[in-house]
Amino acid sequence: MQPGEIQPGSTVELDRCDPNDTSGFTRPERDAQLELQRLRGKLQRLQELLYAGHQHRVLIVLQGMDTSGKDGTIRRVFEGVNPQSVRVARFGPPTVPELDHDFLWRIHPQVPAKGEIVIFNRSHYEDVLIARVRKLVPKETLHHRYREINGFERMLVEEGTSILKFYLHIDFREQGRRLRARLDDPSKHWKFSVSDLIDRSLWTKYIKAYNEALERTSTEWAPWIVVPANHKWYRDLTVLRSIVGTLTRFRMQFPPLAPEARTFLRGRPWGKGKLPSPVD
Amino acid sequence: MQPGEIQPGSTVELDRCDPNDTSGFTRPERDAQLELQRLRGKLQRLQELLYAGHQHRVLIVLQGMDTSGKDGTIRRVFEGVNPQSVRVARFGPPTVPELDHDFLWRIHPQVPAKGEIVIFNRSHYEDVLIARVRKLVPKETLHHRYREINGFERMLVEEGTSILKFYLHIDFREQGRRLRARLDDPSKHWKFSVSDLIDRSLWTKYIKAYNEALERTSTEWAPWIVVPANHKWYRDLTVLRSIVGTLTRFRMQFPPLAPEARTFLRGRPWGKGKLPSPVD
What we know:
Oligomer: homodimer
Number of helices of chain A: 10
Shape of chain A: globular
CATH class of chain A: Alpha Beta
Helix content of chain A: 40-55%
Structural class of chain A: alpha/beta
Mean pLDDT of chain A: 92
CATH superfamily of chain A: P-loop containing nucleotide triphosphate hydrolases
Strand content of chain A: 5-15%
Number of strands of chain A: 6
Strand order of the largest sheet of chain A: 1-6-5-2-4-3
Radius of gyration of chain A: 22 Å
Largest sheet of chain A: 6 strands, mixed
Low-confidence stretches of chain A: none
């Protein structure tokens, strides 16, 4: 199975997808760093246009096993971007009031507004992943949820949101290396929790859950993108490229003066460079 | 009147405070850029500690006339900071449901959580500024509101939030230059609105409103800081220094392994470098 965008209807077998893939980069250290720099600059300019234009909404969904690099991707891809129109929504274990509602109830208020990029660090997909692995809901519910997720995302897209869904793909050995690194480095101890080890012991079940979820929710309007993530630089580059590509296709321009501003300025002295003086 | 922190109980006369002040920088272009770089690096490290430690909450309030540089400060001070724990809350004209509540109702849900820095781009202070200038409420209401603001902020501080309130100080001529620059540059037309000109004509009234508000709400727990802002580099530097100073005084450390993680790892083979294998 090739990494990249999953065609709707195709079979997903993550075990047969290479998490070490770094297609097209033979001198990663140099080429990749330069390319990352260039793309980050581009993202900054595009994001200013997005904010100014106040037309498009962008939703980025990040999923992946523990240590797959969701936090790192957010930091590395969005460093330098104006925090005023980028927002991160984290979805941890649901609270009691959240559990008292449908699973999309806590998700919907967090979707992006016009001009905004919102990054979901985990998402509604946990409700078909951990919910399946830990048997929190009957199997039938899962099948409803795939359909409900597709419907919800379709609505968002039809109403003007662009959705980019990234699965950060690492393998079992790489997760072991990263967990060990967390234990070896006191400045990373705060990231370590027992539940990471429990989830690690359920790796095979999680892969099965991801295979099914990615298969059932890769749609024409919101396909999943499988990102080889054993190499952090390649992961960052792939995600950044995809976001920059999407924003570029919007063909955005800075909006002109508002009509009422034009009318207001026309014929007045400060229309030609002078501005009104203070009254009082 | 000197720029900087306003001592509680002292008189505020913004007209007598120099917006061109750049104390201590004789070679601004070079020294200031280096210092900005250094402080941004420091902010990034402190913010990681803040996020990891999950103890302190930081609220930054930005106020100032149109074009005083609220947006620019946010972009320049927080570029490079992890968007995961920095959030910007903008407060525009209140909506109908917001007007149907007390003026702090829309503010309270936006205050920072533990580990978070939240920047208020405009704030509850609009309700004693524009509300006063445009006579939206009777004078008596203003006097209640100063007290209510002080009480609200005191509660936040007593419950563990640090509040930094910056007034970005430009003068009337500088605003004229900046508005004209917006009209001259098509890529900045989207920032221009007729209401900027109306507010400009009310400059003197706004200064009076700010004088009173800053005087009445500079408290021991949350003093205002007047930032000379005619020079953008000096404005950025002053704000950045103040934030870095506050975070430094927290004396934060990376938290150790959670007690349950330590217990769990003790005596188990993966405590010594091995991790559990997948089941199934």
